[in-house]
Specification:
Layout: H1 2-9, H2 14-24, H3 34-43, H4 49-52, H5 56-69, H6 75-86, H7 93-103, H8 105-110, E1 129-135, E2 144-150, E3 155-162, H9 168-182, E4 184-185, E5 188-191, H10 198-211, E6 221-223, H11 231-243, H12 245-257, H13 266-293, H14 309-314, E7 326-327, H15 330-340, H16 353-365, H17 376-388, H18 393-400, E8 432-433, E9 436-437, E10 451-453, E11 462-463, E12 477-478, E13 485-486
Parallel strand pairs: 1-5, 5-6, 11-13
Antiparallel strand pairs: 1-2, 2-3, 4-7, 8-12, 9-10, 10-11
Length: 497
């Protein structure tokens, strides 16, 4: 039954649900018909659109509730939220559009601007490229976003909010989470240039090289140096800004307008962070789920397959596509994560442990109120008062003397330690020539070729651009802790990747 429910919520007809179920079961022992699917749906309360028969008044009531948090959501997003949040299946877009013409005519007209800018992006198939990017529009609130997208299907692999989005260890943890969720890695990762991206770039390169020795001496990451060329994440941020951000942004802005929140007070920052980040993350999880399970509008100018992102990602063969996912050894993933995203890194701490104990007790004392757009600041103010009353002078000194976190990635964060062994034994032995020019990377631009240069301290090769072109004649193999590293600096003249 769970598999029927899954495809029911993807709004597939019973005939399609039956096809997917048959593909998932052993047909030599089991079978299922369209009639059986219909019967099971009704038995478990999964009614079709016609069977639900919602009135305009009932739909309007739920639309008004949704508008409290999502005042600018479009028709497709509303249809999905009505289904996911309230189990209401509206017959078609036309019915909802007719209703919106009555209850919000000006807003409906404002969403029909035809203001899209078209850009070209190529992808060979599913898991050819994972592209990621950060989003800083809420930095004034201390909330920073990061997204990873599988570019062919459009599936959002991760969508995160935290108090940082430029610490390599944090971003690498998002990548490792997606690797475990999907059971493999893509051929390439991709991002804009930046120090924060070297964690994912290096981690992905190490994993790929362990599973394909022909990649030794190359970096399996594509840097999109030209502005606006990391297309898929930028398209996603545009949609998030239109459909998700406005309602929550207006809510958070009220704290500044009415003086409830002081961004220069460390106590305010800690309480805000503890309350806001988990709440916004839950909302982002719902938004990501809707994006991944909703059929986008058809676009005749788009050559990539038209379908639900999750279905394209899971069954590319149904869309005439190939899956390039590289299956990986879990032990290699664990060992690589321990190096690039160590769990004891301070970036993973939402608030200090001692403060977490106090604020959780204060929140429980308030009967753990549900946080929403309409209750956030009321809950924040009550929680601030409760925590303040439980703090000792020593606690207050710790809070107000606490330095602000630096969200900039250190330039040498991933350089090998001179003479050290930065890798656990589980990663095994790696063999690299002292100096080698990387082969042409799949689908990479001409300026993405990355020569490797051996550093003076004798560690791994440092990946840099535009060297003098001379190669050492000594091609002796290096073993163990000597690996290539991706390093990024702000010096444009060095063309560093």
């Amino acid at each position: 039954m769970p598999i029927i429910e899954k495809y029911y919520h993807l709004r597939l007809p019973d005939t399609k649900i039956t096809e997917y179920v048959l593909e998932a079961i052993d047909q030599t022992q089991y079978g299922i018909s369209v009639k059986t699917v219909k019967r099971l749906r009704k038995k478990h309360g999964l009614l079709s659109t016609r069977q639900q028969v919602h009135t305009d008044d009932a739909i309007a009531e739920k639309v008004f509730k949704i508008r409290e948090s999502y005042p600018t959501a479009g028709v497709g997003e509303l249809l999905k939220m009505l289904d996911d949040e309230y189990g209401m299946r509206v017959s078609n877009r036309a019915q909802l559009i007719s209703l919106l013409r009555v209850i919000e005519p000006a807003e409906l007209a404002g969403r029909k601007g035809n203001k899209l800018k078209r850009k070209r992006f190529w992808a060979t198939g599913v898991n050819d490229v994972w592209a990621f990017d950060q989003h800083d529009k809420w930095k004034r609130f201390g909330l920073l976003f990061h997204v990873g997208v599988e570019v062919y299907s459009g599936r959002v692999l991760w969508l995160k909010v935290w108090w940082s989005n430029r610490t390599p260890a944090l971003l690498a943890s998002y990548y490792f989470g997606a690797v475990r969720d999907t059971g493999g890695v893509p051929l390439l990762t991709q991002s804009d240039p930046g120090k924060e991206a070297v964690g994912i770039a290096n981690a992905h390169t190490v994993i790929r090289q362990h599973h394909d020795v022909t990649l030794l001496g190359s970096i399996q990451h594509r840097w999109k140096r030209k502005p606006g060329t990391n297309v898929k994440p930028e398209i996603f941020w545009s949609g998030l800004r239109r459909g998700f951000s406005p309602g929550f942004e207006d809510c958070l802005e009220d704290g500044f307008i009415f003086g409830w929140y002081d961004a220069d007070d460390n106590l305010h920052i800690l309480v805000f962070r503890w309350l806001a980040i988990p709440w916004i993350q839950r909302e982002l999880d719902s938004y990501r789920h809707r994006r991944n399970t909703r059929l986008p509008r058809s676009n005749k100018k788009k050559f990539l397959p038209h379908g639900i992102p999750d279905l394209i990602f899971e069954r590319p063969d149904r869309y005439g596509a190939q899956d390039f996912k590289v299956l990986v050894d879990p032990a290699i993933v664990d060992a690589t994560e321990a190096r690039f995203a160590p769990s004891d890194h301070p970036v993973f701490e939402l608030v200090p442990a001692w403060f977490k104990f106090k604020i959780e007790a204060a929140y429980a004392g308030l009967n753990a109120p549900v946080v929403s757009v309409s209750t956030f600041w009321e809950t924040f103010r009550a929680l601030l008062r409760a925590v303040s009353g439980d703090l000792t002078p020593e606690d207050l000194h710790l809070i107000h003397s606490r330095p602000r976190e630096d969200d900039e990635a250190p330039a040498d964060f991933f350089e090998p330690e001179p003479g050290g062994a930065p890798w656990p034994d589980e990663l095994g032995k790696l063999f690299y020539p002292k100096s080698v020019t990387s082969p042409n990377m799949p689908h990479a631009d001409a300026d993405d070729q990355v020569p490797i240069q051996q550093p003076e301290h004798g560690g791994g090769g440092v990946l840099e651009g535009e060297q003098d072109g001379e190669e050492e004649e000594d091609e002796a193999d290096l073993v163990g802790d000597e690996i290539p590293w991706a390093v990024y600096t702000d010096d444009e003249e060095d063309n560093v990747v």
